[in-house]
């Protein structure tokens, strides 16, 4: 039942102690504000890091070689190790049951790209049709490279949306047109886009067989790319990918007579390991943010408790009179608790509204490396406020209970 006299008492007490009430509420509001902002930035970091990995398949594994650094079986260090088509085919045959997507990779050196009277500096790379899935590319126009192109050593090329804008000057339908790579005509069969944005669209793609035969690449490869079939959970998928990379290294070291302990000759990267590292990093940062935010809130709750103790002390004689007139202990407790809950609730929701409003309006336009659209789950935020209100009630309960147990005669003698 609504007790208007009780609320009048609360507002009268607040009116008499404006500064004290404001400072108490400010400490509570600032605690919620800091917690929400920190959690928002934690989520923003998670979003930003996820965006960095979005440009490629999250389980991509790359393989490349350099020179040996150790003597092995009578062979001197400093030997360049060259990947070959038969290495790629052997890996496909040996691990076919685990592979999801795969592609050899050959980069053309010192090539020019011309279209009509326009010329541009772009990277030209020979790949297989499945490279689209490894790079998370999408088709804007036409089609991607296919196995027919690879088998027939077709002079066809994929261009990007960026190259279409820059080199073709935004030509509406470039499919079927020809551009020149180092003076050789290639027919445009498709236009692709990349989720990584313009920085990933400075490349043209031609069939791997065409890159090797037309541009004197023999059977050499620069890299090999693979993705594995996902397992039931992340940890299992990660373990399987780590074992796969170690197996590839062992095979290539044996095939090219490289010392098993040579750290440089055969190299791999595994994006899942990067994902795991960043997950651990963001998890640690979010834990730290929670810790700082909760400590700030606890400081606010302690402030509420101290203020309630001061209020009880100031109103000791009043409490004695109320008890002498027959007030029950729980009525005294309720009187003190209402004020604590009211101040905590108003301050908590004020901090919540201000912090979420700031994230809503400033977050989407914030430009910070590895931070993207900082935000917080509303249920988490509102649950935090209700927990704060409960904590504020507990903070006020103990001084209130102490006041309710004071004997009237002792309260009336209080100075």
TrEMBL record:
PANTHER family linked: ABC TRANSPORTER PERMEASE YTRF, MEMBRANE COMPONENT OF TRANSPORTER-RELATED
Coiled-coil residue windows: none
Domain ABC3 transporter permease C-terminal intervals: 291-407
Ranges for domain MacB-like periplasmic core: 21-238
The keyword Transmembrane appears for this protein: yes
Residues spanning the membrane: 21-41, 287-312, 332-356, 376-398
Family: Belongs to the ABC-4 integral membrane protein family.
Annotated compartments: Cell membrane
Membrane topology category: Multi-pass membrane protein
Keywords: Cell membrane, Membrane, Transmembrane, Transmembrane helix
Superkingdom of origin organism: Bacteria
Pfam family, one: FtsX
Name under which the protein is recorded: ABC transporter permease
Chaperone recorded as keyword: no
């Amino acid at each position: 039942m609504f007790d208007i006299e009780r609320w009048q008492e609360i507002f009268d007490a607040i009116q008499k102690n404006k500064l004290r009430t404001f400072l108490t509420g400010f400490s509570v509001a600032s605690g919620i504000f800091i917690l929400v902002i920190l959690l928002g930035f934690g989520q923003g970091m998670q979003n930003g890091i996820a965006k960095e990995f979005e440009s490629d398949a999250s389980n991509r594994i790359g393989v490349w070689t350099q020179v040996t650094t150790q003597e092995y079986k009578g062979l001197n260090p400093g030997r360049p190790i060259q990947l070959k088509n038969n290495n790629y085919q052997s890996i496909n045959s040996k691990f076919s049951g685990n592979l999801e997507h795969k592609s050899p990779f050959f980069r053309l050196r010192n090539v020019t790209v011309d279209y009509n009277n326009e010329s541009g500096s772009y990277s030209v790379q020979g790949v297989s049709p499945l490279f689209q899935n490894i790079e998370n590319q999408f088709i804007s126009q036409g089609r991607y490279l296919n196995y027919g192109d690879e088998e027939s050593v077709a002079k066809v090329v994929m261009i990007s949306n960026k190259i279409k804008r820059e080199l073709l000057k935004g030509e509406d339908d470039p499919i079927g047109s020809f551009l020149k790579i180092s003076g050789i005509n290639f027919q445009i069969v498709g236009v692709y886009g990349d989720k990584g944005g313009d920085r990933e669209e400075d490349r043209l793609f031609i069939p791997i067989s065409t890159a090797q035969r037309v541009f004197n690449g023999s059977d050499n490869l620069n890299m090999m790319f693979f993705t594995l079939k996902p397992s039931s959970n992340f940890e299992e998928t990660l373990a399987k990918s780590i074992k796969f990379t170690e197996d590839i290294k062992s095979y290539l070291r044996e095939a090219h007579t490289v010392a098993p302990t040579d750290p440089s000759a055969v190299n791999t990267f595994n994006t899942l390991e990067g994902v795991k590292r960043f997950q651990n990093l963001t998890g640690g940062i979010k834990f730290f943010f929670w810790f700082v935010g909760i400590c700030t809130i606890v400081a606010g709750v302690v402030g509420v408790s101290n203020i309630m103790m001061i209020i009880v002390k100031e109103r000791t004689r009043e409490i004695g009179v109320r008890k002498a007139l027959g007030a029950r202990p729980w009525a005294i407790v309720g009187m003190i608790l209402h004020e604590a809950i009211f101040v905590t609730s108003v301050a908590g929701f004020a901090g919540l509204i201000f912090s979420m409003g700031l994230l809503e309006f400033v977050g989407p336009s914030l430009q910070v490396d590895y931070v993207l659209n900082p935000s917080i789950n509303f249920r988490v935020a509102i649950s935090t406020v209700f927990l704060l209100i409960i904590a504020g009630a507990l903070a006020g309960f103990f001084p209130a209970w102490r006041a309710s147990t004071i004997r009237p005669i002792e309260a009336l003698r209080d100075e």
